[in-house]
Amino acid sequence: MTPEKHCGVVAIIGAPNAGKSTLTNALVGSKVAIVSPKVQTTRARLMGIAVEGETQLLLVDTPGIFAPSNRLGRAMVKAAWGGTDDADIIALVVDAKRGMADEVLHIVEGLKTHKGKKLLVLNKVDICVKEKLLLLADKLGSMASFENIWMISAETGLGVYDFKIELIKHMPAAPWHFPEDQLSDVSMRMMAAEITREKLYLQLHQELPYAATIETEKWEQRRDGSAMINQIIYVERDSQKGIVLGAKGAQIKSIGAAARTDMETAFGHKVHLFLHVKVKENWTEDRSIYQDIGLDWVN
Ligand SMILES: Nc1nc2c(ncn2[C@@H]2O[C@H](COP(=O)(O)OP(=O)(O)O)[C@@H](O)[C@H]2O)c(=O)[nH]1
Ligand SMILES: [Mg+2]
Predict the structure, then answer these.
(1) Across the strands, what pairs with 151?
(2) Is the full-model pTM beyond 0.90?
(3) 10: Cβ–Cβ under 8 A, 6 or more apart, which residues?
(4) Considering only CA atoms, which residue is closest to atom 22 of ligand 1?
(5) What is the Cα–Cα distance from 25 to 18, expressed in whole angstroms?
(6) Counting ligands in written order, which one lies closest to the CA of residue 19?
(7) Is residue 98 in contact with ligand 1, taking CB distance under 6 Å?
(8) For ligand 1, atom 2, which residue shows the shortest CA distance?
């Protein structure tokens, strides 16, 4: 007799920068979500898929929950809470170093009335002192009914495997939703766009990454096994275009080189990457772009 399969949805929510995407990648065991030290790196929901024994975990990595100031922000926060709707369990990830920030309290408040099962995950234990951790566990733990409290480091991997085993316990008996070797629900085009966006976050300063969005315009698989990928980086103003290009095109060259290396790792073949920068004023008010980045249009 074949053992019974289990499959379910884990919603990973939290404030911006808590380490949700790092945790998703650690649980999948492969990089499916982009990560940067800047807040609001993740714009849309994506699903990372992990298999352990007879269980398939569908990990919904969400944008951070924060007080939005514009339409893009509102769409991101809506996508984040939307990720909890059909979850079998919700994992609230908290940056333990930052502690009891207003953003965290606001999310815990929102979770109180949530019917689903919840776990509290205190992340970044590698950079947080123990006394502070215990205090935080005590305070946050008493504010909502969590099934359990975990202390982990998504970055170093400390406690991640045990946490994965906890998640598995909450997954209902059900057939697997995806093929065994699939790691995410993101299309290759979207993944390519996300990789380039991560490089913008890592290489450009201040507000610029927030003013940009990437579109994979063309993807041509070649007979020699390589792919030619054309992407457009949309920015809002001419001055931003200059920054992305850099002196004599040095900046975009460096972004392109880093993105290409990651794409080759992600797709397992050689990539010829061509980046173009275009100015599109108010792209955050353009409905069609929301569809491209996987967000609903909100009023
Ligand atoms: N020291 C430390 N840094 C972490 C840990 N987890 C995530 N980070 C860092 O925190 C930042 C935000 O991570 P990210 O996964 O993008 O957060 P998200 O916005 O919640 O998805 C990145 O610079 C990560 O490298 C951790 O366990 N320890
Ligand atoms: Mg993220």
Answers:
(1) 122
(2) yes
(3) 57, 58, 59, 60, 87, 88, 89, 90, 91, 167, 170
(4) 37
(5) 14
(6) 1
(7) no
(8) 124
Residues 242-298 have pLDDT tens digits of 999 999 999 999 999 999 999 999 999 999 999 999 999 989 898 888 888 888 988
Domain boundary, last residue among 136, 169, 202: 169
How many angstroms is it from 15 CA to the middle of ligand 2?
A: 9
Residue 263 inside a domain? The answer is yes
Pair 81, 201 in one domain: no
| Total of domains in the chain | 2
The string of pLDDT tens digits covering residues 9-29 is: 999 999 999 999 999 999 999
Domain limits at 271? 188-292
| 298 domain residue, yes or no | no
Residue with tokens 């598995």: 168
Residues 67 and 208 in one domain: no
- Residue 181, in any domain of the structure: no
> Distance, CA 22 to ligand 2 centroid (Å)?
7
Q: What is the CATH number of the domain that holds 204?
A: 3.30.300.20
Crossing angle of helices 102-112 and 130-143, in 10° steps, is 30
Residues 138, 90, single domain; the answer is: yes
Alpha carbon distance 269, 265 (integer Å): 7
